[in-house]
Amino acid sequence: MSDNLQYFRQHKLPHIWCAGCGHGTVINAFATVAAKLGLDKNNTAIVSGIGCSSRAPGYLDFDTLHTAHGRALAFATGVKHAKPEMNVIVVMGDGDCAAIGGNHFIHAARRNIDITTIVMNNSIYGMTSGQFSPMTPKGMAGTTAPYGNVERAFDFTKLSIGAGATYVAKTTSYHIKMLQDLIEKAILHKGFSVVEAIVQCPTYYGRRNKIGSAVDMLNHFKDRAVNVKAAEKMTPEQLAGKFLIGELHYEDAPEFTAEYEKQVAEIQKSIKAKGGA
Q1: How many Å apart are CA 56 and CA 17, to the nearest integer?
Q2: Smallest Cα–Cα separation from 21: which of 89, 123, 90, 99?
Q3: Quick one: pLDDT band at residue 114, thresholds 50, 70, 90?
Q4: Measured between alpha carbons, how far is 54 from 213 in angstroms, rounded to an integer?
Q5: CA distances (Å), 194 to each of 13, 31, 125, 179, in order?
Q6: What CA–CA distance (Å, rounded) separates 268 from 24?
Q7: Cys staple from 92: which of 97, 152, 198, 231, with CB 3.0 to 4.6 Å?
Q8: Using CA atoms, how far apart are residues 210 and 173, in angstroms rounded to an integer?
Q9: pTM value surpassing 0.85
Q10: How far is Cα 179 from Cα 61, in angstroms, rounded to an integer?
Q11: What is the pLDDT of residue 1?
């Protein structure tokens, strides 16, 4: 049996994702990391909202929550606050996270709560027929932008850093080994961690924008992605039309649940010193 197969609810397979979808690649990468780290199924919670990516908890054999649209981080915050010892991993899509869930995202980052957030960015609302999302590039088409999206897309990693996330990384479903490494680092980091995984949606995004098959989309990622270390030696002209992948931000900062428990202990000590119960 494959090492990571133990982390799947095998009776729920095969999955419902479209042929060529990148979500399965990301979930398989996570399960591979879970096997490497020996994550305890009974001490790990996988939380999602609504969307194609949010089907993941149905296939992963952990304590799981499939919550309301955009509210995954609100539920996950409650889980982590109640049980700080648990590993809490949130799986979201670009629309679920950056649109209706955007406010929850920035405040989870601001608090620096120890949650690992994996955002599968396929640049589209896949489950509901291909509407454009906050991370659909300008000029690209969706069912709600048939002549091309006129809005600027979020730079999600910059948004994450600006909001206070203490670990931020980005890669693609083509760069599988890097994806595994970054997910592992994110899980081990004590604080709010974000891994943005650029994934292909051949059914809606690729077809509507005439990018081609899933393989064509993966080759598109390969050609446009530049490792952040290599980018240091490149000129702005060489980086035009490219995007950076790798570990983009790391810092050590006080973690929310630890700070909260510290405050509770100090209050209890103060009350006891004053002769209280």
Answers
A1: 10
A2: 123
A3: very high
A4: 23
A5: 27, 17, 20, 12
A6: 47
A7: 97
A8: 19
A9: yes
A10: 21
A11: 43
